[in-house]
Amino acid sequence: MSYARVLCVGLVGMTGHLVEVEADLAPGLPGVAISGLPDTALHEARDRVRAAVVNSGQRWPNRRITLNLLPATLPKFGSAFDLAIAVALLGGSGELPLAPLDGVVILGELGLDGTVRPVRGVLPMVAAAAKAGVQRVIVPTGNAAEAAVVPGLRVRGVDNLHRLVGFVRDGDPLIEPPTGAPPPVDGGPDLAEVAGQWLGRRALEIAAAGGHHLALIGPPGAGKTMLAERLPSILPELDDDDALEVTALHSIAGLLPAGGGLLRRPPFQAPHHSASAPSIVGGGAGLARPGAVSLAHRGVLFLDEAPEFSKAALEALRQPLENGRVLLARSRGGAEYPARAQLVIAANPCPCANPAGDDRCECPPLARRRYLGRLSGPLLDRIDLQVRLPPVRAAELMESAAIESSTVVAARVAAARTAAAIRWATSGHRLNAEIPGPHLRRSPWRLPARDTAELRSRLDAGSLSARGFDRVIRLAWTIADLDGRARPDRGDVAEAIQLRTGEGT
User: Fold this and answer.
1) pLDDT for 392
2) Structure confidence by residue, pLDDT tens digits, 277-308
3) How many CB atoms lie within 10 A of CB 489?
4) By CB neighbour count within 10 A (0-12 exposed, 13-18 middle, 19+ buried), where does 174 fall?
5) Inter-residue contact 131 to 15 (CB < 8 Å)
6) 34, 43 in Cβ contact below 8 A?
7) Angle 498-208-269 (CA atoms, 0-180°, nearest 5)?
């Protein structure tokens, strides 16, 4: 037999496509040609596969070898095709009977000694295979636990090419995925560790309950970073659909923790202020990889010292904040990643950042305006809560009274989210921050004119944009949910305006 075919999966963004790896062995000058839009890593597979086959005790066919990856119009990236190529070559040379691998997807990178190494993106690849009707997959042992979370699939692991050859020839067993429960995940820092800052704690709770973006502005030591780092601790655990999506993103980025399993805790990403725009929204040569905003999907993206970030990095966030997705266009095709993260930014009010606050600021007014002016108006307009934190006083720092823990606050957040999910169930949304503005301005959700009089006055005066108008209404609904009321009242709207504009904070 001089022809063989096995199944693999190619990944473009988060979308997996079933790929047929064909091998044709013909008389002629020995050599290997690969077609089907392979990238550099795939072109180099010919050398890896040859060394792995020989070092696994198999005979390398000295013939003219043509490898084709179907569909040929789909770009192929990465080294996950190595194992499938090796099996197809051995099948085409007559060394292996491929009947046991009929309808089986094979994934894995080969080392020169024949070991099968883990690859990125196995979870979305295996999920795509299951969606295409595949029932059996063979993956590297390091990816077996990750692949096993996809229901309806029989997953087996392999640690070297020799083991896979023994399975095909003699029926030797492959490695079962681990069945033990994944190790417990640390809940992270607790909100009880934050001294004082009742306004910051209130804003954090509202942001968590409604999925709102948050800006914390205050002097050094006011607790901005402490508050932001504790936001994930009061967010509910991810449900199955969100956990699968978040885990797939981290799989593509190669950031899954050892042991596999779904990520249930909302992710937290805090890139350094020197981060580039591609590292924030995604990019890279060849296949565009997810950036920090996508890795924070259904979690928190925290930008500490936000004015120190480059203008390009900050402005690149405007579209993801609006529609919750990132589309990275490339000449060889685009990649789309979800990016529905809560943005939290922290900033000092001025360059001198005097710990005593505005009372002892040494910066001239122009310097203060220029510093916070690095955060553009269109970006700030997309941030629902903009809170100014005062310096922490000694009495607050040394207070011995019990402070609410993350567990207590998380219970209120969960109750508020449940109320919002029930209310918006018919619209297909779960969080107040996701509700379209026109939906809130129509019956039966439109608030009475007496409750929105100040809000409409600010809109007419130009001190609030139409986007800001809608975001204040969303905040008011979240405040009402936290207080256990069916609809917002005038007081809720007034508090939402204060939290939105930073006035009186």
Assistant:
1) 82
2) 999 998 876 667 899 999 999 999 999 999 99
3) 16
4) middle
5) no
6) yes
7) 110
